[in-house]
Amino acid sequence: MGNVVMHNVVSVDGFIADENDQVGPLFEWYVNGEYGLAEDRQDATGRLKVSKASIDYVRPTWAAIGSMVIGRHLFDMTNGWEGRPPTGEHVVVVSHRPKPNGWHPEASYHFVDDVAVAVATAKELAGEGTVAVAAGDVGGQALALGLVDEVAMDVVPVLEAENRRLRESVTKQREAAKEQGFGARAEKLLQLAESEAAELRSRTVRESADLMEQSRAAAEGYRHEAEQALIVRTTELDQLAARRDADPAGARGTDRG
């Protein structure tokens, strides 16, 4: 069977949503490029267009996904993508409530009330494909239970201070798992993911500082050029004024020329 991957899009300061549980600018990179993504599912996902660098990364990653595990909150927010998820053919929803009556009977959506059962079901449905577990409470529980093989973070160069942190979604689950002896593997995976994210965050800050310094240097260069041009023009005007004072008639003749 394929790997179980907890995937999330996160800001450089570790947030996955704003105070209203909206993704805001974190998902803008899915719609601001030139290359179509999941074009056969636009009726459910909307028009997704990413950059060349993103399409080279996202397309094979999504193509490898066989099933998804999500929480009821995400299902309700998206209405289950109208039975057609962005990727994969099967979705397992962790919920204490059943599938809505009459909702897309043709769709391979399975509702279970236990995270471990959800992951096991998704693995069976995915076969050799990847099982993608959405970040958040469900992802935190799966990670804490040691059911996650990889943690994937798409780090977006924005700051989302005062919003919902990824770490907060897994901390309480991880602490509970430690008491049951399941936490060591989850801790290792999370530490590895956070280390990589911290390095990217540090690199982003350094690169931003370099860009700011380059911008300041360029602005200083433009200012210097403007000052030199102003000095030259002022000198020319002073010389013209001096000639007019010395020979008013001649200066007027020069002006007419």
Total discrete domains:
1
The CATH H-level superfamily is Dihydrofolate Reductase, subunit A
Summarize the biggest pleated sheet: 6 strands, parallel
Order of helices and strands: EEEHEHEHEEHEHEEHHH
The CATH architecture would be 3-Layer(aba) Sandwich
Query: How are strands sequenced across the largest beta sheet?
Result: 7-6-5-8-1-9
Helix content bin: 40-55%
Which key terms come to mind for this protein?
18% strand, Dihydrofolate Reductase, subunit A, 8 helices, six-stranded parallel β-sheet, alpha/beta, 257 residues, two-stranded antiparallel ribbon, elongated
Describe the structure.
With 257 residues, the chain is an alpha/beta fold. It has a single domain (4-206), classed as 3-Layer(aba) Sandwich (Dihydrofolate Reductase, subunit A), CATH 3.40.430. The chain contains eight helices and ten strands. The strands form three sheets. It has a six-stranded parallel sheet with strand order 7-6-5-8-1-9. α5 runs parallel beside α6 (166-180) and α7 packs across α8. The radius of gyration is 29 Å and the shape is elongated.
Short description:
With 257 residues, this protein is of the alpha/beta class. It has one domain: Dihydrofolate Reductase, subunit A. The protein has eight helices and ten strands.
Present the secondary structure layout:
Layout: E1 4-11, E2 15-17, E3 35-37, H1 42-45, E4 48-50, H2 52-63, E5 65-71, H3 72-78, E6 90-94, E7 109-112, H4 115-126, E8 130-134, H5 137-144, E9 150-156, E10 164-165, H6 166-180, H7 183-246, H8 248-256
Parallel strand pairs: 1-8, 1-9, 5-6, 5-8, 6-7
Antiparallel strand pairs: 2-10, 3-4
